[in-house]
Amino acid sequence: MPARSLLEHHGRGLGGCANTPANGHVLRTPFPVGSVQMVMENPEQTTSEPRIYTAPRTEISQNQGKFRIHFNFPGSPVPDHDDHGYGPLATVVESFMDPGTLISMHQHRNEEIISWVPDGVMRHDDRLGNELVTDPESMLVMNAGSGFWHAEETYEDDPPLRMLQIFVRPHSLDLEPEIQHEPIPDAAQNEWRHLFGSVDGDPPLSVRNEVDCYDCRLAEGTTISLPTHPDRDTYLYVFDGAVTIGESETAIGYTESALVIGEDDVPVTATENSTLVAFTIDPDAPITRQGTIGR
């Protein structure tokens, strides 16, 4: 068997991360917003009007050598917001795995974990006997519920992996554990592709709270509107490239993000070829905050 790096649970050993406790659980207290820009479409509007909050590339990260992670907290840009997450969306984690990396068997509880792999492969096995490969043509959703054990791996001859692992807070504790691994629709240039959503909708994969997720490959110079749902807000993450957002044409670059509150039709224009991920979120949905990572 090829030599592999044996790494601990994603959340262990995070004591060196700014604003992250030694037990690896994400803080439940607000993060500082000093480096965050708030953009008002009209400075004279009241706080009940549309607001766009932008955030730079996160500084909250963990380097375990062949496995590296960067935590993006959608609620952190909002002043006086007492939650690093935003409604059911706890955190969006940019993850890197070098070839020949093993993250050994570990348990998640009371969180929905979604693996989005735009390039390369992520190999999963679990105590139910599943051996699954997630790649650009498929997605993996672990509805951890009362407890789900799994491991992640890349082989020596796999390409370097950069992916998103998305943590959603379920509406209730200790739900039935489930796993979903399904093909996703082919990506169409300059169109939003629905990836997962609440069980009440009709997405390819489902999570047990009011969050829907979309991705888009947006060509330079192309404008598209953010996805929206009634009574929801939208969080945008720029995985690759750079865009402007809103009538103010606020710039959002590589690995930066924006939370849009109270707006139904927000234009996004690519200033270079870009890969975008967007979430529509019900900020008032009931949530639980006892997940292993995504608290």
Question: Could you explain the architecture of this structure?
Answer:
It is a single chain. Helices cover 0% and strands 46% of the residues. Strands 2, 3, 15, 16, 17, 18, 19, 20, 21 and 22 form a ten-stranded mixed beta sheet that branches. A seven-stranded antiparallel beta sheet has the order 4-5-6-13-8-11-14, with no helix packed on it. Strands 1-7-12-9-10 form a five-stranded mixed beta sheet, with no helix packed on it. The protein is mainly β and 295 residues long.
Topology (SSEs and partners):
Layout: E1 5-7, E2 37-40, E3 51-55, E4 61-63, E5 67-72, E6 89-97, E7 101-108, E8 112-116, E9 122-126, E10 131-134, E11 138-143, E12 148-154, E13 161-168, E14 178-183, E15 193-198, E16 205-207, E17 211-218, E18 223-225, E19 233-245, E20 250-252, E21 257-261, E22 267-281
Parallel strand pairs: 1-7, 15-16
Antiparallel strand pairs: 2-3, 3-21, 4-5, 5-6, 6-13, 7-12, 8-11, 8-13, 9-10, 9-12, 11-14, 15-17, 17-22, 18-22, 19-20, 19-21, 19-22
Report the CATH architecture: Sandwich
Largest sheet: 10 strands, mixed
Query: How many structural units, i.e. domains?
Result: 1
Estimate the mean pLDDT confidence: 86
Ranges with pLDDT <50 over ≥5 residues? 1-48
Separation of the first and last Cα atoms: 36 Å
CATH homology group:
Jelly Rolls
Helix proportion range? under 10%
Output the radius of gyration. Answer: 18 Å
Name of the level-1 CATH class: Mainly Beta
- Encode the helix/strand succession as letters: EEEEEEEEEEEEEEEEEEEEEE
Total helices: the number is: 0
Task: List how many beta strands DSSP finds.
Answer: 22
Strand fraction band? over 45%
What would you call the structural class? mainly beta
The CATH topology is Jelly Rolls
Shape: globular
